[in-house]
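Could someone model 4-nitrophenyl beta-D-glucopyranoside with this protein?
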Amino acid sequence: TTRDLTPDRLDLPADFAWGVATAAYQIEGAVAEGGRGPSIWDTFVREPGRIFHGETADVTVDHYHRWADDLDLMAELGIPAYRLSLSWARLQPTGRGALNPEGVAFYRALLEGCHARGIQPYVTLYHWDLPQALQDEGGWPARETAYRFGEYAALVADALGDLAEHWITINEPVCASFLSYSWGMQAPGHTDDTEATRAAHHLLLAHGLALAAFRERRPAVKLGITNLISNLNPASDSEADAAATRIADIRFNRIFLEPVYHGSYGEDVARVFGMHGITVDETDDGLVRRGDLAVISAPTDFAGVNHYTNTLIAADPESPTGTRMTQVEPTPTTFDWSDTPDALRDVLLRVSREFTPLPLYVTENGATFADYPTHDGRVHDPERVHYLAGYTRACADAVAAGADVRGYFAWSFLDNFEWSWGYSMRFGLVYVDYPSLARIPKDSAYWYRDFIAAQTAEADKARVTDAAAAV
Ligand code: PNW
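Reply:
Sure, complex below.
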């Protein structure tokens, strides 16, 4: 199908936050500079066979040294909002004790640099880079890690809490628990379901403790947690496929949504925990302690939704998980993920109808395509333009259908270290030429610039002019 991709004005409020997103470990590099301590990812990338081509993120796109140029480029593209994450190991090298002053200085300069350019920062406290010292003491399967995170959050609230209005506690607890401790795909690369389930609860507890720490110190800021929410549907109308879909939905989505927004693990989630011999009844010595759910479900100000996949689920007794998953067509991306924007609309509507009436932010959405520079110094990525045009419109469709969506952040600003895929998967609107590290905006970056300008034509013109004058 052809679609007119000329950006036009969507029916959304003028203050809708259009942004781009990144994460510290994927872009900063400088892993042994500025007093930073090692994180579980520094360890993981050094283990043979973990990362495509054995690549590391020791340098990645060198944002630690190039941040000012990167923010200049963001301002030139007229991008009004930027979601970034703080490296826990840069701020608190061993995961306990006073903050590292060089780390604080780096992030203060970065956040002040956003404001100087008229860019609103949205800050994530944890995007997977646990200090190695805390993994050595048990990592997320250990309850103490949640308390360390609460202390870290309190120190960050004091040191940096004046520099952003929106704070996200944890990015995608499903990845930091199941992908990391059960599926072995992400650091620390363990394959133990019980560990993963314990990690899941402790990540939620860590969210709640960080929320309380910020509330006490920074009553004016807006807080939320970001969950990865896949659109899951049965592959057929058979009862077996419907049952398999319900189980997948519990494992991927409901484990993390119910405790935060409903204040309890529901019966279905309890059954899945039970498969690992774990009870979710609150007790004095079990995984879920008395009072945990009150901490986890304390009110937030918004809900973060990361959305990538649109999955059909079939029961498959032959497979170890009992399910077979395929993505809904078309799947033009290098990861074989879909370009089906109605999935984003459906996920947003589901979260708002089933889980929370809070404002929603799409804190990540994007795709990877095999795109390469052409000889004219431009990078043509028509598939990404098509993807962005559809998924931004899906936000307006969700609002029209009743969801309170307030922002959309494209993943990612720059090509970067795509975790276990190393540099082989490019999600950026801006191309990075390895190893020169030159930044070249792709056609999608220019499309997004024009799209954003079209959303806020008058207000935006004034803002871009101010920012250009300030640079
Ligand atoms: C997100 N899935 O992770 C992360 O937040 C980013 O750091 C990452 O670079 C980006 O997506 C692209 O992969 C995901 O299994 C992990 O559907 C898993 C899935 C999707 C996104």
